[in-house]
């Protein structure tokens, strides 16, 4: 296969396969080999952040999820894809799952599908548009008025590879949805998390994070916007946030855990945008050997959310080729995500943009 090919469709230049399928963890030009060498030299855990990673049980699956009775879990974007599969699994183990979704009809339909399954606790749908800071505040207020505990916050909702547009608050939409809204939501719900023994925050990143860097002078993509670069940047922001949240929680002696996960590569409804649909067609021949189903993709998220062996500051994903599929394991933390100065600067920028300040450095 000639990996470096590029196409034009309707006058639009598309990236070569190495760029198009970055989210699947495949890169041309010999990068696969270099990454393999690097992974032999560098830890696949977050030892550099002061954590030791327990070995993940081989073949960990939903049957290994501990009883979740009495626990309250928020899943953003829980009406479809990875979020739905995570909600379904947790409801099947007795958790009270809150489906925090932009579309209430879709959330209610997902609730009904899960409630109809034998032995599954009915989830609660609540309206949340994570791309809108006012909606994030309204959701947090409504949730706090209804619940006196929060055991797990799964920051899952996301969009992928959309043409440049701005959120209601004037933020680049992928950054607003995938990172900034979740940053604000976590801060607003942190007091409730801190009041709940053993609480966890689970930011959902992507293997696309390894292809990104944070350009603070072009954070909103005003110059040279690329649908995929913007997506990759937002997923690196998720990982930087998860690791920095862990560090800041540890520094104040909090018992709240921050455990980041990525699902590998799965054909979820994130591929609904025009740019992503083109990529989906290009990736179709590789779907069998490299991609896995949404329920398999949800396993690292569920491990991070529930396993007694998951470590705060840890990063989990599949263990297969380029972490695209496979069993749950400690994931590779890309070099860009280990830059403490970048993480701290992103935190400050996120506070300034959203107006939600917490855990000062």
Automatic annotation (TrEMBL):
Keywords for the protein's UniProt record, in alphabetical order: Oxidoreductase
Record-linked InterPro entries: NAD(P)-bd_dom_sf (IPR036291), SDR_fam (IPR002347)
Organism domain of life: Bacteria
Annotated signal sequence range: none
CDD domains cross-referenced by the UniProt entry: retinol-DH_like_SDR_c_like
GO molecular function: oxidoreductase activity
The protein's name: NADP-dependent 3-hydroxy acid dehydrogenase YdfG
Species per Swiss-Prot/TrEMBL record: Hydrocarboniphaga daqingensis
